[in-house]
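Mods, move this if it's the wrong board.
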Amino acid sequence: MKTLEDFKDIHKDRACFIFGAGPSLHFIDTTATKDHITIAVNSGVMRARWCDYFLSDDVGVSSWSYYTELLPTLNCKSLLYKDKLANHCSHLSDVFLFEHTWWYSPKENKYNYDGLSLNKTGPIIGARTSMGSALHFAYIMGCNPIVLLGNDCKIKDGKRYFWQYNGEEAPRRVKGSPFTRGNQNFGFDPISFIEYWSALEQVNQDLMQNGLNIISCSEGVLDCFPKISFHEVIEFIDK
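Not the wrong board. Structure tokens:
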């Protein structure tokens, strides 16, 4: 796929599960998503190795083993933010580099609500989180419903990520400082995430009132999308 246009409606009316990495993912048997379209965001790929797509906006992924060692072994397309990751993807064989519009300008302390409007032509909406970019790709590909997993926007049991629980395989930093409980909250601002998702829901209300289903199966603080248990979603989709 050479342009964003090539993604348009290629998975029309198929369910898409987007894997974040919040703690609630630890409590879900995600293997039931294997027969559906899946987008793994950042370290969410550790629990979705069968994913159709990997997506990241964050140059920080280049410091983690899931990106440098695991991702090249998987049979998926990598969707990467051009400005931050174009120089960090030579080890990957199937890459699409995308561009963003903007959501928030720290320099001007200004928000761009038009930058959250889902469309089929691009560029990808402004992002406070790579989950937002993944949702836009799912929309462009015609997926419906779009199900958010591990999009918790909160700390649970003192943990930021699902892979901090016992029994989960944890990635490791291949460069930079080791990940610890002490530095786990670097860059983590739950309020800004909540503001982002709430604004996205408001901007795209017409789409959702006309059939676009965005469902949260995350155990978190967001209440802007319908919350349905993972079991109920799978039961309904596979009916």
